[in-house]
């Protein structure tokens, strides 16, 4: 279990309420998406299936998730150095969001850290691929950088 | 899209002693090799999985006790609303088999559905040292009205089967799930006017 210092480190960069988060911008705006989204979005939803980049497990079907930009801190999915701590990570800003956990085809939820649950692949358990704040049951985020689109 | 037709969403629990391999039952049903190093540091709380059984797509919310079994008694909320339970023991460990009765007691105490479907799973049949015979498992399952299967989460033998059989049995017990179906999840009525022949094997009378 993470000690207090670790928890704070994980929890503080994440705003608990996405609706009030000044960082959040819908689709376009100051936080310009760094990739070409035209292929990935159709009618405001994800145009392609979202799958695990490691084992291809299907996470979301096409047409069920909205694209949002929001700064969310996620621990690294891969070990980048020997010195890397479990709490090291990066801020990611491009996400798919769904409002009901049963929208997912396959996904795993970690135990709660602070108020956060990390989303992982349900099959190979690689992750975190996304994030959920337990105080807001209507938002489940999947980071575009952590998954494949097929 | 046919893929979107979810018949029902079900809550499934996995219970049993520590170390019997409950968590590994939750891993995927394919030939992908699982990396044991992956062991999540935070620990997995629950999973959402989609399963097709005879053309019926069911979404499962699967809850693993995630180590809480060490405290002997799980919180009642863990059991609340569950339609199915997978009761796991290790065929190479008699003690895990002997404790099954206590797990069933706990289930009877806290389960909110009288006709919850139970499946007994004898795990780790890949191990050479066997302490619990198939017959013993079968006998226990019959006595307590459980489905029964032996499997190996390591070789994947029987694991897929265990979930499929459990879901099949739940679907055949309409009182268990009909009232719970969310309007969003119930895909049969909104089938875009196209009867799905594949979905009809055996379950038509229920629908």
TrEMBL record, chain A:
<dbReference type="GO" id="GO:0005829">
    <property type="term" value="C:cytosol"/>
</dbReference>
<dbReference type="GO" id="GO:0007264">
    <property type="term" value="P:small GTPase-mediated signal transduction"/>
</dbReference>
<keyword id="KW-0862">Zinc</keyword>
<keyword id="KW-0479">Metal-binding</keyword>
<comment type="subunit">
    <text>Interacts with RAB8A.</text>
</comment>
<protein>
    <recommendedName>
        <fullName>Guanine nucleotide exchange factor MSS4</fullName>
    </recommendedName>
</protein>
<dbReference type="InterPro" id="IPR007515">
    <property type="entry name" value="Mss4"/>
</dbReference>
<dbReference type="GO" id="GO:0005085">
    <property type="term" value="F:guanyl-nucleotide exchange factor activity"/>
</dbReference>
<dbReference type="GO" id="GO:0015031">
    <property type="term" value="P:protein transport"/>
</dbReference>
<dbReference type="GO" id="GO:0016020">
    <property type="term" value="C:membrane"/>
</dbReference>
<keyword id="KW-0344">Guanine-nucleotide releasing factor</keyword>
<keyword id="KW-0653">Protein transport</keyword>
<keyword id="KW-0813">Transport</keyword>
<dbReference type="GO" id="GO:0006892">
    <property type="term" value="P:post-Golgi vesicle-mediated transport"/>
</dbReference>
<feature type="region of interest" description="Disordered">
    <location>
        <begin position="1"/>
        <end position="36"/>
    </location>
</feature>
<keyword id="KW-0007">Acetylation</keyword>
<dbReference type="Pfam" id="PF04421">
    <property type="entry name" value="Mss4"/>
</dbReference>
<dbReference type="InterPro" id="IPR011057">
    <property type="entry name" value="Mss4-like_sf"/>
</dbReference>
<comment type="function">
    <text>Guanine-nucleotide-releasing protein that acts on members of the SEC4/YPT1/RAB subfamily. Stimulates GDP release from both YPT1, RAB3A and RAB10, but is less active on these proteins than on the SEC4 protein. Might play a general role in vesicular transport.</text>
</comment>
<dbReference type="GO" id="GO:0008270">
    <property type="term" value="F:zinc ion binding"/>
</dbReference>
<dbReference type="InterPro" id="IPR011323">
    <property type="entry name" value="Mss4/transl-control_tumour"/>
</dbReference>
Automatic annotation (TrEMBL), chain B:
<dbReference type="GO" id="GO:0003925">
    <property type="term" value="F:G protein activity"/>
</dbReference>
<keyword id="KW-0449">Lipoprotein</keyword>
<keyword id="KW-0378">Hydrolase</keyword>
<keyword id="KW-0547">Nucleotide-binding</keyword>
<dbReference type="InterPro" id="IPR025662">
    <property type="entry name" value="Sigma_54_int_dom_ATP-bd_1"/>
</dbReference>
<keyword id="KW-0813">Transport</keyword>
<keyword id="KW-0636">Prenylation</keyword>
<protein>
    <recommendedName>
        <fullName>small monomeric GTPase</fullName>
        <ecNumber>3.6.5.2</ecNumber>
    </recommendedName>
</protein>
<dbReference type="GO" id="GO:0016192">
    <property type="term" value="P:vesicle-mediated transport"/>
</dbReference>
<dbReference type="InterPro" id="IPR050227">
    <property type="entry name" value="Rab"/>
</dbReference>
<comment type="similarity">
    <text>Belongs to the small GTPase superfamily. Rab family.</text>
</comment>
<keyword id="KW-0342">GTP-binding</keyword>
<dbReference type="GO" id="GO:0005525">
    <property type="term" value="F:GTP binding"/>
</dbReference>
<dbReference type="InterPro" id="IPR005225">
    <property type="entry name" value="Small_GTP-bd"/>
</dbReference>
<dbReference type="InterPro" id="IPR027417">
    <property type="entry name" value="P-loop_NTPase"/>
</dbReference>
<dbReference type="Pfam" id="PF00071">
    <property type="entry name" value="Ras"/>
</dbReference>
<dbReference type="GO" id="GO:0003924">
    <property type="term" value="F:GTPase activity"/>
</dbReference>
<dbReference type="GO" id="GO:0015031">
    <property type="term" value="P:protein transport"/>
</dbReference>
<keyword id="KW-0653">Protein transport</keyword>
<dbReference type="InterPro" id="IPR001806">
    <property type="entry name" value="Small_GTPase"/>
</dbReference>
